[in-house]
Amino acid sequence: MRIINNVSDLLGDDLKSVISRGSKVRIAASTFSIFAFEALRKELEHIEELEFIFTSPSFSNGQATDKLRKDRREFFIPQAESSLYGSEFEIRLRNKLTQRAIARECAAWVREKVTFRSNASGHQMQQFAVVDDGAAYMPLQGFTTADLGYERGNAVSNMVTKFEGTPEASSFLNLFDQIWASPGQLNDVTQAVYDHIASVYAENSPARVYFLILYNLFAEFLDDISEDVLPNDRTGYQDTKVWQSLYNFQRDAATGIINKLETYNGCILADSVGLGKTFTALAVIKYYELRNKSVLVLAPKKLAENWTNYNANLTTNIFASDRFNYDVLAHTDLSRTRGESLGLRLDRINWGNYDLVVIDESHNFRNADYAEEKESRYQRLMRQVIREGVKTKVLMLSATPVNNRFNDLKNQLQLAYEGESENLSDKLNLSTSIERVFRDAQAIFNEWSKLPADERTADRILQMLDFDFFELLDAVTIARSRKHIQAFYDMSEIGAFPTRLAPASIREPLTDLDDIPPFNDIFEQLQVLTLAVYTPLAYVFPSRLSKYEDLYNVTTGNARSNLGQKGREEGLKKLMTVNLLKRLESSVEAFRLTLAKIENAVDRTLARVDGHAGSMAEVNADLTDLDLDLDDEDDANVEALTFGEKIRIDINDIDVESWQRDLWHDRETLRELLDEMRKVTPDHDLKLRKLRHLVEQKAEHPLNPNNRKVLIFSAFADTANYLYRELAPALQQAGLQCAVITGGSHGAKSTIGTGFDFQQIMSMFSPRSKQRHLTMPTETRDIDVLIGTDVISEGQNLQDCDYLINYDIHWNPVRIIQRFGRIDRIGSTNEVIQLVNFWPDISLDEYINLKERVENRMVIADLAGSADDNVLNPGDSDAAFRKEQLRKLQNENIELEDVRAGVSITDLGLNDFRMDLLTYMNEYGDIATAPRGLHAVIPANPAIGLLPGVIFALKNVNADPAVNRGNRLHPHYLVYVNEEGDVIADHTEAKRLLDLVRAGSRPHDEPVADVTRAFNETTSEGADMSKYSALLTDAIHSMIDVTEERDIDSLFSGGRTTALTQQIAGLDDFELIAFIAVVDPSGAT
Fold first, then answer.
1. Model confidence at 592, in pLDDT bands (50, 70, 90)?
2. How far apart, in whole angstroms, are the C-alpha atoms of residue 214 and residue 917?
3. N or C end of the chain, less CB within 10 A?
C-alpha cells in the first residue's frame, strides 16, 4: 500500500505504469472526461475492456433534466454529463478547441471497449478504480485530468491510496463485480454516453448553437420565470377572439407585457407605427378582465372612439363576443371633477379601484408638472388612480416615449412604480438609484448630441450609456421596429409591408390671380399684427399694474409655474400667430375664417372701449371656436393659457389711446388681408385644383389593380370641410364616393347618405382591414376618397388604401409618419403605396427659417415643461434635427425610428432573445445537457455585418456575479474577431452581437454544407485548431484591453469608477461556451 500525493507523484503516471495490453479496468467514479481519456490514450486503447460505474445517477432519462435546484444550476448541467467534455478545471484544455478531434477518437474507443452503467439506487457509493487484480486506487473524485494530477483542481489535497498486490486489490475487485452484477442497482447508459460524446464531433446546425448560447446567457431568466409571472393559461385567454386575431409578434408582445406587469407592475409598449399596438393592448386587457380585474383606458379625447368601439355592444365591434368591460376616459378628464365624459359621471368615479390602467399615447404624460395652480393631470393620475386604493398596474402605449429628454421616460415610468423608485429598483440588478440612472443617461445623451454628425451614431451612444440604463429599459419596455419584425419573424403568416414609392412633393402658388401677394408677403403682414385684443394687460399703466398682478397672477403651484396673467397673454398672442401661419399654409378658407374671427373680436373690443367709461367687463379672448391645430402636447399649453377667471380691468387704468391705436392698426391689416383672401374663390384656388387633378388621375391610373382609394389629411377641420364641400360633387360625377371625418358629434359626412358614424364610414372606406363583412354585413357600397383631420391619424388601420395626401405639412415630422402609418401597415394587400405632400410655395430654407421665427415660442415651451426644457430655437439641436427631417421628407419616406432624436428604444432591448429562447424551450425541451465548446459554421454576409472571422461566447468563471462592468451579459461575454484577430465587435456591444448571431444562425436548421466543408478542411476535421485557438486568445486579450480602457476612462469621467473592481485576469478565467465560425462562402468551393 502506498500514498500517491498527486504533486510529485501523479496518479496518471502510476496508471500508465500499471495498465498493460489486454488489461481489464474497472472504475467507479462520479465523472468521466474525454480529456482524461486523451491523457491516457496510448494505454487505454490497448486494454481489453473498461467497466465504468457513475456513482451518482447520471444519463438516466428524466432524472438528469428535471428542474434542478437553483444551487445545482450553477454549472447549468448535471455534473457527470457536463464533465464528459472536460470538468470545470479543464478549461485550459477545452479552450484549445481540440475537443472535437478527441471526442471522435474517444467515441470510437467507447463503442469498442467500454460499458458504462449508472447508479440507479440513489444510495451513496464509494469511488475507486481497479486494474486487473493487481492494483486498486481509492478514493477517487472522478476520472478527469485534475484527478489524474495533470491539471490543478480546487481540492486542498488530492491524495490517493494505492493498494498493490492481489490480496488487497481482489477485495475491491469482488466489491465492484458484486455491484456490477446486482440487478436493479445499475442502469446501462453506454449508448447515452456514446451519443453525448458523439454530439461533440457531430456537425451542429447554426440554429442549435444560437439557442445554446442564448440558454447559457439567459438561464437565470428561465429560473425566474415562474408560473406567477407568465400568463395563466387556465383563464382561457388564448380562446378569446382578440387573442386569435393577433399575429405571432403581437402575441409575443402580449405575453411579454403580462410578464412585465406581473413582475414590475408597469410596462411601456413602444412598437413603431403600423404594428397594431391597440390590438396587443386589448389582448392584455382581456387577460386581466378574465382574472376579474377592473380596467381603465385613458386615451386622448380624439382617440377615445378607438377604444369605446370595442367595449360597447355595437355591430361595429368585431370583438363583441369577448364582452370587453373596461372604462374609457380622456386624458383631459383628469383635469375635470364634474360633468360627464364618455358616459361616466366624473364626480362619482371610484378612481382608486382600477387594477390596470392602460394609457394610450402615454407620452402626453411626459411632463410631470404644468403651469396651473390646480393639480396637474399627471399628479392627479399618480395620486388618485395609482397610489390610492387597490394596487394598480400601468401599461403605457406610445410610439414616441423618448423625445430628447430621458426625463420624459422617467416620468412615464414613475407611474408604474408609484413615484417610489425603490419599488422597482429592488427587483432589478442596479448599482444605483433609478433617478441616478436617468440623470447619468441624460448627461451622456447631452454629451453625445454635441458630437459631430458623423460620430453621432446609435452605436456610439450605446457604447457610452451605462449598463444600468439598459437593465432598466429592458425590464420595463417592449419596443420593436418594422425592420426588427421583418428580420426576426416569419413573414409568410403576416404578409409583408407594402413597398413605399418615393414621396411626391407638390408646391402650388396660392392662386392664379395677379394682385394677390405671395406667401412670404402675407407672412410679413402677419408679423405686423400686435394682436392687442388678446393682451389688454400690456396696456395697463405701469403704476397700476401691481393691482392686477395680485388679482390675476398664479401664485400657488411650484415656483416654475408662476407665469402670471401677462405671460399668459403673451403666450396666447404667440399661439395665435403660429395658428394663423399654419392655417395660411393649410388652405385659403381656413385662413379666411380665422382672420374673420379675429377681426370680429377686435370690432367687439373697440365697440366696448368706446361705450364704456367704468369697468371693462370680461376682456378675455374666447378661444373656443378657433379650431386650433394642437398636438396633444399643446393642449396643456392652451389649458394653461386660457385658464383663469374672466379678467375685469378698469378702463381708467388702461392707456386707452395706445390700445385703441393698436386695435385699429390690427383691424386695418386684417381687413386688407381679408379683402385679398376673399378674391381667392375655389375656382382660383390652385392648391385645390391640383388636389382634384391628383385624385382623378389616381382613379384613372391606379397604383395597384382596381384600387381607387385616396386618403387626404389636413390639420384643420375647416380645411377638411372646405375640401369636402368643393370636391365631393365633382368627384361624385366622376364616379368616386367621398366622405369627411373631423371628429366631434357632427364629425362625419359622406356622399353615400346620412346616418353613418365615423366607424362606419371608415369601414366603408377600408372594408377589408376594418372587417366590414362582420360589422356591416349588408353594406356593399364603398367610399373611395376619405378626407380627415388628425382625429384618424393614430390608431386606425386603413390599409385598403394605397395613396395618402398631406394637404398641409405638419410641423412635427412625427405626425406625418403617424398619418402615413394608417396605410403603411403590416399585412397590406397593396404592392406599393404612395405619400404625397403639399408644401407652401416657397423654398424649403425659407420655409424652415419662417417656422423658426415663429417657433421661438418661449412661453409655450416654458409652460409645458420644466426649467431645463430645451426651447426650440434655431441653434438648438432639436430644431436643426427637425429641419433635417423635413428636408428628408421631400424625397424619401422616413421611419419613426429616424425621427426620434438619437436613441430608439428598439436598439436596446434583449427581450426578444429571451422570448425566442422561451419559445424554443417550450417546443424542444431543455438543452441544459448540451456540451460546452460546440461550434457551428455560417456563411459570411458583409451586407448585414457578418465578416469572415469567429464569434466566441465565453463565461468568466471567477467573476463576481454582482459586478456588472459595462457588460450587459455578465458573467458571460460575446466577442467577434476577424481572421487576423482584430476585434469587429467587443463584449460591450451585446445587442449588436446577438443580432448578428441571430441573423446568421437562426435561419439554418441544418449545417450549411459548403462552409462546413471548408472549415473542416482547414482544421483537419477539428484536429488542428491552432488558428481558432489563437483567435480565442486574441479575443480574450481584447476583452481585457477594452475593460482596462473603460476602467481608466471611468476614473476621469463623472459617476462611479469601475477601475478598482478589476475582475478579468487571464485566459484561464474564461470558459468557452460555444463559438460560431463565419466563413467566406466564395472561398468554400
1. very high
2. 7
3. C
